[in-house]
Amino acid sequence: MQTVEVSHIVKSFGTTQAVADVSFSIERGEIFGLLGPNGAGKTTTIRIMLDIFKPDQGTVSILGGPLTEDKKERIGYMPEERGLYQDIPLERCLLYLASLKGLSPAEARQRLKGYLERFDLAQHKNKKVKELSKGMQQKAQLISTILHGPELIIVDEPFAALDPINVQLVKDLMRELRIQGTTIIMSTHQMHQVEELCDRIVLINKGRNLLYGALNDIRRRYASHAVVVRADGELPPVAGVAEVVPHNGDVKLVLREETTPQDVLRALVAQGAPVERFEIAMPTLDEIFIRAVGEGGA
Amino acid sequence: MGKIWLVLRHEIRTTLGSKSFLFLTFGLPALFSLVFLAVTALSRGASGIPGGAGGAGDPSRLQVEGYVDQSGLVKAIPTSVPRDILVPYPDEAAAREALRAGEVAAYYVIAADYVASGDLLYVNPKYNFATSRGQSWVMRQTLFANLLGNDAERIARAARPMDVKVTALSPAQDTRDEDNPATFFVPYISMMLLYVVILMAASLLLNSVATEKKNRVMEILLSSVSPRQMLTGKIVGLGLLGLLQTAIWMGTGYTFLLLGGQTLQLPAGFTLPPSILIWGFVFFLLGYAVYASLMAGLGALVPNLREASQAVILVIWPLIIPLMLSSILIEKPHDPLATVLSIFPLTAPIAMITRLAAGGVPWWQPLLAVGLLVITALIIIRAVANTFRAQTLLSGQPFTVGRYWAALLGRG
What we know:
The structure holds two protein chains of two kinds.
Chain A: E1 2-13, E2 16-27, E3 31-35, H1 42-49, E4 57-62, H2 69-72, E5 75-78, H3 90-100, H4 105-118, H5 134-146, E6 152-156, H6 164-179, E7 183-187, H7 191-197, E8 200-205, E9 208-214, H8 215-221, E10 226-231, E11 241-247, E12 250-255, H9 261-270, E13 275-280, H10 285-297
Parallel strand pairs in A: 3-7, 3-8, 5-6, 6-7
Antiparallel strand pairs in A: 1-2, 1-4, 8-9, 10-12, 10-13, 11-12
Helix pairs in contact in A: 3-4, 3-5
Chain B: H1 2-16, H2 19-47, E1 65-69, E2 86-88, H3 92-100, E3 106-110, H4 114-117, E4 120-123, H5 129-133, H6 136-147, H7 152-159, H8 182-214, H9 218-222, H10 227-259, H11 275-301, H12 305-324, H13 326-331, H14 336-343, H15 348-358, H16 364-391, H17 401-408
Parallel strand pairs in B: 1-2, 1-3
Antiparallel strand pairs in B: 3-4
Helix pairs in contact in B: 1-10, 2-10, 8-10, 8-11, 8-12, 8-15, 10-16, 11-12, 11-15, 11-16, 14-15, 15-16
């Protein structure tokens, strides 16, 4: 069963069309990247999914149908605009938000204790939220998103304001949740995090789908006709190679149209080249993002 | 219902933890009490006699005073005057001696030609306005009774020389006593009280929504509860706190009056129908529902608290109209304008309670006003809930009147 199914949604505010035509579906237990440049319509899409905005056209199915009040308790949402009650103690703030998600006070208290310790916030639980640093508030926000054990988590820029240690903490947590069967939708501009975590992505631009599918498929689709080779010493000349380009300490061999990577590997081995690493040259997600948005905008 | 209760409880808990609310609700009345007690203590110190400020309503606080009747008018002390409060002396020397000995706190000398001249001498070594005024009725009643020959029937008739029975020819007939100060003050106080109570309670809601907006917590709340649940929880929770605040203020005010020895003295013959309290409660709740909802909508649209307080006038102006036209509502409660104001939903809570306190309102008019107010409150709560859904997320946009009305009308 699809956890989320967004089908041809359209949304305008006055004369501004925020979402023109966006569709995607998300399987249970996957980490899904919702990507796009600023103003692409990501946040509006998320708000439509959460029934905060009604779409002008199109349909959204969440956890097997339209979003209901009961289903809201099965979703965790961390919006881009972080927000917690600033003038009340951290623990009270998180317990209240958990209670709105249907968690009993005893259960919430027990779970919160574990998360506060894990995120190194236990000693700050009685402090007012406004007395916490930005990074601490970010962690608290994340706890509030997952405390009720949601089946679907939507996080907007989850790594913003976090130091590398906490980024790792969050990444580990997301992987852990995926193993437990939680579906995660992540919207971020940090492409290397997407490459590391996401199974599939949708890239939207100007309110429309630009790229959609499994991350590896997309990278393969955007792969240039080239291989990256690392060798212990000079590489011998190989037939069928149009160009040799240095590439992050390795060598990138751009192949002629009729040459296959296997032809090159065979030729290198035949010549006794000291090859340590040989792989198809895959573009980074950053490169794909820039290329796709550039082509889409052209 | 569960989430409404959670929101309600959170609002009450958070507001009760707010220093400004605590100060307004408990601190300010406590401060007034302290000032009042200090003033009372000072005035008692000045009189030097325990219970010196005693008034008509508390005979135990009356001080013993003497009198010298040179006119021979006083044959008896009326039964309305507590016994042994007025002590006769044959001449002023005796009275002065009694004063010096502390047997009396003061004494009167009724001049020989009192009936013709009205001359009366009051000797009080520690005279001040506050201590003397409270007991002046004792001597006044004594003279009054004796001038009428201590005839109980005459005294009663003189107190109420005209017992006019008015038969209303139409339900709107004005049956009020224009000479009675309460005819003005009771409606006026009712009007002001309801205005302050509705405004204060509704402001709590504006503050709550604007603070959540400032804290950017609204979007998270909307992903957990429906706008209607959130709005209902807030309205009910903060309404209860508004009632608490009002009860404390009114309780403090009433206590002041009791401590001051001056109970709520409405002139004889004036009766405030108990139903006015029920109507007051009903119109407070409905007026609060309407204005608190409008304030919540305002809070949802304004980017910050400062702009919120500036935009408040946009919402509360209908509430001010009855205040501006208070003279019509009080002096001519059956004027067509007064009737319209008391039935039109946005002005009804204050205007109708003013007219009801003035009296003579046909029974169907408050019922009609309540019916229209209920419908209006439901429409406004619905409109504001829609505003919450769409507009809270567009934070940062400057507030304009057009945006506000467009949002309420569902075009936001």
